[in-house]
From TrEMBL:
One of its GO terms (molecular function) is oxidoreductase activity. It comes from the Eukaryota. Keywords: Metal-binding, Oxidoreductase, Signal. It comes from Friedmanniomyces simplex. InterPro entries: Di-copper_centre_dom_sf, Tyrosinase/Hemocyanin, Tyrosinase_Cu-bd. This is Tyrosinase copper-binding domain-containing protein. Residues 1-17 form the signal peptide. Residues 322-333 form the Tyrosinase copper-binding domain.
């Protein structure tokens, strides 16, 4: 009894010390002016606060691994990479597309006719678990781990020596088609899709939203990925022929349709900052990030950039076919990491929800002891081991 009380007091002391050092209260959007929210000042400010909290937490020995703030890999925004690193990044991504599958067995192969490459094993795994990793408790943790494995493959299978970059959509939100990511030169992420004129607006039943055509629509035509062949999907695209079965072989070009209508409505600094600061409960934060449970925000920053990329990126099931998926989810993971670290004691290990999309069909509340499935990508991972970017198999932070 005395021991418990003493421990409780000690913890209380440590927590209050942490609060004092890290800058007290979790920031709110009302702490900033609309201008500071719109121009990124607020977002950059809170991301620095999150890093300080993270550093403080780690420097006080709260980590159980040898991963430290100092030796963790530091992920950077794509456009801050030097040109040579960008090129080696896209070359390694292409390498996985040209490599035979590494996990699928000969016995399994007949059931997955569209899986022709190591990269396809990622696409197929995402297809297989789509309804178990979106609008679920493990949306953030599963995608965090999924892109971590891809980053490891770039390094271990394709000789990449850099880190996984992320794509800060807010920098491109107002004019996505002019982004340096998509210039189509050899140091870019490849071009937009070839422009297809005379298209009409599209109505999306699930969101009951009508959107205008984007600035591309056809095949990526220059730079990295201009000559890649996509094998799986699409399963859910409007205005197109979708495949009849999940893993059908459907060879075609990589398509994009950069669409600023989405990014200017869902991926501005105002969108990012209000989502980050106005949702203090994980239930709300994960839903609003994905555009669920909101009458006005039907896509969230997650859906906004998927549909903003368009083409292959907008197919719910097979979107990892476009390597852009992985730097998009790098930003989603950065976003989650900032949210966690803004109130690290309460948010590091908080989860909410089940393992079925929108809890349909109903399933059990997930726990941190549940195993997250990675199919052809890698062995399953314990949920609680990937809540911290310094824990379990992970050792990275964002800049
Ligand atoms: Cu996904």
């Amino acid at each position: 009894m005395y021991t418990t009380l003493a421990t409780g007091l000690l913890l209380a002391t440590l927590v209050s010390a942490q609060v004092g050092v890290s800058g007290a209260e979790t920031p709110k959007s009302s702490d900033y002016t609309p201008q500071q929210i719109a121009d990124g000042t607020a977002f950059n400010n809170v991301s620095r606060m999150a890093l300080e909290n993270m550093q403080y937490n780690l420097s006080h020995g709260n980590t159980t691994t040898n991963c430290t703030y100092g030796n963790a890999q530091q992920r950077q925004e794509w456009r801050t990479l030097d040109p040579a690193t960008r090129k080696s990044f896209t070359s390694a991504a292409t390498c996985l597309m040209n490599m035979p599958p590494t996990h699928m067995t000969a016995t399994e192969a007949p059931y997955y006719p569209g899986v022709k490459s190591r990269h396809d094993e990622y696409v197929a795994t995402h297809i297989n678990y789509t309804l178990n990793v979106h609008d679920t408790a493990d949306f953030f943790a599963w995608h965090r781990t999924f892109i971590h494995f891809w980053e490891q493959d770039l390094k271990n299978l394709c000789g990449y020596t850099g880190v996984l970059p992320y794509w800060n959509w807010a920098l491109d939100a107002e004019s996505l088609q002019d982004s340096p990511l998509f210039t189509g030169d050899e140091y870019s992420m490849g071009s937009n899709g070839k422009y297809i004129a005379n298209r009409t607006d599209t109505w999306l039943a699930a969101q009951d939203v009508t959107y205008p055509p984007g600035t591309g629509g056809g095949c990526v035509y220059s730079g990295p990925f201009a000559n890649v062949t996509v094998h799986l999907g699409p399963l859910d695209l409007p205005n197109t022929n979708n495949v009849n079965s999940s893993f059908q072989y459907n060879p075609r070009c990589l398509e994009r349709d950069l669409n600023p209508w989405f990014t200017e409505n869902y991926n501005t600094y105002t969108n990012l900052t209000t989502t980050l600061l106005d949702n203090i409960y994980i239930t709300d934060f994960q839903a609003i990030t994905q555009g669920y449970n909101s009458a006005t925000n039907k896509f969230g920053v997650h859906g906004g950039a998927h549909w903003g990329g368009g083409g292959s990126m907008s197919d719910f099931h097979s979107s990892p076919a476009d390597p852009l998926f992985f730097i998009h989810h790098g930003m989603i993971d950065r976003f989650f990491t900032i949210w966690q670290n803004l109130d690290i004691y309460r948010r590091q290990n908080v989860i909410s929800g089940t393992s079925t999309l929108g809890n349909s069909p109903p399933s059990a509340e997930m726990t941190l002891d549940d195993m997250l499935p990675f199919g052809f990508v890698a062995a399953d991972v314990r949920f609680g081991d990937v809540m911290d970017t310094f824990g379990g198999p992970l050792c990275y932070r964002y800049d």
